[in-house]
């Protein structure tokens, strides 16, 4: 079986994608930022550490592999900065997580948004493809969703004012943003990619009723946002090659082992599960913040749900018996053959990473793989 055909094989264990940055990689990044090494030297170290990571992923028995997001600073902003017309800025505030505030980087629209062939996600995948093309695995590219990009472009008065200057007509923004994403996806496909995962915190935030109450946004406003996010995502992924698998991961925030949003999937289930045109949903269910499984009844028959039951935020290993029982519970709503098991998120959505060691990270993955093999 080759990487091109492996997507047709039912797989019941998976990962979300990001891995803890090795010490050597962190040191090289710091030296680069201090002007002590060149971009070429940094890229060489990134390449070497990604190769080591892929070898470990293969050794762990994973079918879908990633580059660990080792070239990214943050899970989403690097992608936005890679589009023409988008500028890296430092805002007044970062994102407000539970008990902390994140770094202050943001992305501001300063010109018409376009995809170009030097986009960092394309370059990153080309290297991943080069080291996996002869392996019995599927290289996956994770990309923050178009809805997530839009949410960033309107975050804060400075971003919003700049966006309005460039795109006074929102229809033009929708057209350009979704086309830029569509062009990125086609370029990834041409480079050999057959599996793209859209990482998306927008649906997790829309599930948090306390957040929207604090913003004085009522149910009508929430429904309008859902419609806008759905349109952006579906337009970007329409008319893609049939053998390109598109999935989405819904996150509630993953920064230094803490979180940003809380709430079950019920408020977004009809729109997200019923109308977003993806094949698989990677969903967080590692604690009570994610609610129960009942919203999964809205997932159309035949679509896959990857249950993020093992937390990537803490080193403690879950009881396999509890994980098995929870999968069985979820199978009341989604056929067992269409379920899979994973960690609830990646281990390092940003360079900082979560509060666990690399050995503890791999122990989590082993738990997921071993438990899934007991179930399926």
TrEMBL record:
The protein, known as: Methionine synthase
InterPro entries registered for this protein in UniProt: Met_Synth_C/arc, UROD/MetE-like_sf
Domain called Cobalamin-independent methionine synthase MetE C-terminal/archaeal: residue spans: 16-72
GO molecular function: 5-methyltetrahydropteroyltriglutamate-homocysteine S-methyltransferase activity; zinc ion binding
CDD domains reported for this sequence: CIMS_C_terminal_like
Coiled coil: none
GO BP: methionine biosynthetic process
PANTHER family xref list: METHIONINE SYNTHASE (PTHR43844)
Domain of life: Bacteria
């Amino acid at each position: 079986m080759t990487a091109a055909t492996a997507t047709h094989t039912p797989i019941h264990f998976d990962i979300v994608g990001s891995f803890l940055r090795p010490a050597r990689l962190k040191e090289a990044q710091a030296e680069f930022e201090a002007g002590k090494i060149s971009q070429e030297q940094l890229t060489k170290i990134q390449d070497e550490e990604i190769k080591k990571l892929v070898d470990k992923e293969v050794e762990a028995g994973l079918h879908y592999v990633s580059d660990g997001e080792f070239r990214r600073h943050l899970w989403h902003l690097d992608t936005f900065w890679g589009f023409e017309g988008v500028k890296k800025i430092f805002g007044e505030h970062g994102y407000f997580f539970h008990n902390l505030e994140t770094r202050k980087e943001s992305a501001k629209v300063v010109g018409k948004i376009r995809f170009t062939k030097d986009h960092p996600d394309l370059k990153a995948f080309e290297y991943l493809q080069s080291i996996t093309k002869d392996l019995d695995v599927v290289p996956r590219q994770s990309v923050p969703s178009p809805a997530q990009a839009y949410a960033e472009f309107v975050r804060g008065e400075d971003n919003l004012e700049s966006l309005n200057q460039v795109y006074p007509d929102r229809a033009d923004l929708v057209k350009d943003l979704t086309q830029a994403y569509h062009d990125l996806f086609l370029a990834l496909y041409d480079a050999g990619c057959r599996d793209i995962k859209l990482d998306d915190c927008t649906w997790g935030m829309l599930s948090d009723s306390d957040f929207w109450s604090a913003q004085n946004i009522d149910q009508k406003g929430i429904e309008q946002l859902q419609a806008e996010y759905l349109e952006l995502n579906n337009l970007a992924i329409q008319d893609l090659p049939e053998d390109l698998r598109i999935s989405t991961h819904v996150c509630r925030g993953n920064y230094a082992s803490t979180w940003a949003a809380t709430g079950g999937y019920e408020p977004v289930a009809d729109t997200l599960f019923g109308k977003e045109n993806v094949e698989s949903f990677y969903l967080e269910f590692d604690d009570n913040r994610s609610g129960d499984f009942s919203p999964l009844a809205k997932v159309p028959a035949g679509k896959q749900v990857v249950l993020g039951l093992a937390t990537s935020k803490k080193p403690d290993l879950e009881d396999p018996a509890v994980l098995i029982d929870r999968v069985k519970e979820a199978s009341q709503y989604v056929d067992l053959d269409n379920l899979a098991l994973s960690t609830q998120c990646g281990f390092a959505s940003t360079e900082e990473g979560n509060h666990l060691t690399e050995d503890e990270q791999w122990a989590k993955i082993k738990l997921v793989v071993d438990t899934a093999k007991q179930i399926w």
